[in-house]
Write a structure and sequence with these properties.
By secondary structure, this protein is of the alpha+beta class. The protein is built from six helices and six strands; from the N terminus they run ααααβββαβββα. Helix 3 packs parallel to helix 6 and helix 4 runs antiparallel to helix 6. The longest helix is centred in the first third of the chain and has 108 residues. It is rod-shaped and about 185 Å long. The N and C termini lie far apart (177 Å).
């Protein structure tokens, strides 16, 4: 019978001495075994703790590694973004560079155009200055000698003629007689018949003859590069023959043709006026000479 059976049958309190006696008779607990079990449990707990610690350290290392990789990836992404931004800026700079180059070339073309126009204006201004100086020189004196000297200065300094002669037609209209020359010996100077080419054409048409193909510095007495008619109104009264220009002047320029026109229209008039004035002396014509000049 068990103790519970005895309790159920009413034998609880009366049977205490018998139970006490039964407990005192039970064998003592096995403390060594319990100690071993405790030590085993403790060791297992220690191993579990060590394993937990190792796992924790592994996880911590893994987390650190992941954080490092994450940081590296973030840096790489940022670097990629920086590269993309840099490439974008480079493309933008390339577009700006192309635009600036285009604007620079356009400005350069404009500048070249302005420079060419400025050079043209400067040349035209220089030509006008030469024409003004030449005209002013021809009419600056009423002395035939001075007028002739002015004509020679214009030919030498403005046209660049090295060898030339100034002719006036004789009263019969058959010959051109030299009145002034430069670079031509006396033996080479002689009256020239008006029927000699190209003089005859110049006398007949009143237009200058200019060799625009050959080198005027290589001209000669027989083949002059330029013959300029001297005219008063519509009559040709003489001619200027250029036999050769300076060695550095190998062609005639536009200003030379303008100077030829100016000499042809003004040189003869200046010479005739100076000659008439020299014949009549310093006395000026009276007022009656200017009556009925209205046109």
């Amino acid at each position: 019978m068990t103790e519970d059976d005895r309790t159920k049958s009413g034998e609880g309190e009366d049977s205490v001495p018998a139970r006490t006696s039964a407990q005192s008779d039970s064998p003592p607990p096995d403390l060594r075994k319990q100690r071993d079990e405790f030590l085993q449990n403790f060791s297992r707990s220690a191993r579990l703790t060590e394993q937990f610690i190792r796992d924790y350290e592994g996880l911590a290392e893994r987390v650190h590694k992941l954080e490092t990789e994450n940081a590296s990836l973030r840096a790489k992404v940022e670097a990629d973004d920086a590269i993309r931004e840099l490439l974008r800026k480079i493309e933008e700079l390339e577009r700006e560079k192309t635009d600036l180059l285009s604007r620079y070339r356009e400005a350069e073309r404009t500048s070249n155009g302005l420079s060419e126009r400025f050079a043209q204006f400067e040349e035209e201004f220089s030509n006008l200055a030469n024409l003004f100086v030449a005209s002013n020189q021809l009419h600056s004196s009423l002395s035939p000698r001075r007028v002739t000297r002015r004509i020679k200065e214009v030919l030498a300094q403005l046209v660049g003629a090295e060898r030339y002669a100034v002719f006036l037609m004789n009263s019969e209209g058959t010959e051109l007689v030299p009145i002034a020359s430069e670079g031509v010996s006396g033996d080479e100077l002689a009256p020239i018949g008006v029927d000699r080419e190209p003089i005859s054409g110049v006398i007949r048409t009143g237009s200058a003859y200019v060799d625009e193909v050959g080198d005027p510095s290589q001209g000669s007495i027989q083949e002059p590069p330029a013959v300029i008619p001297l005219r008063i109104d519509d009559d040709t009264v003489g001619a200027i023959i250029i036999y050769a220009t300076l060695s550095q002047k190998t062609s005639f320029a536009n200003i030379d043709f303008e100077l030829f026109k100016l000499l042809g229209q003004h040189a003869a008039a200046a010479l005739v006026s100076a000659s008439l004035h020299a014949q009549q002396g310093p006395k000026r014509p009276g007022l009656e000479a200017f009556v009925d000049l209205s046109v």
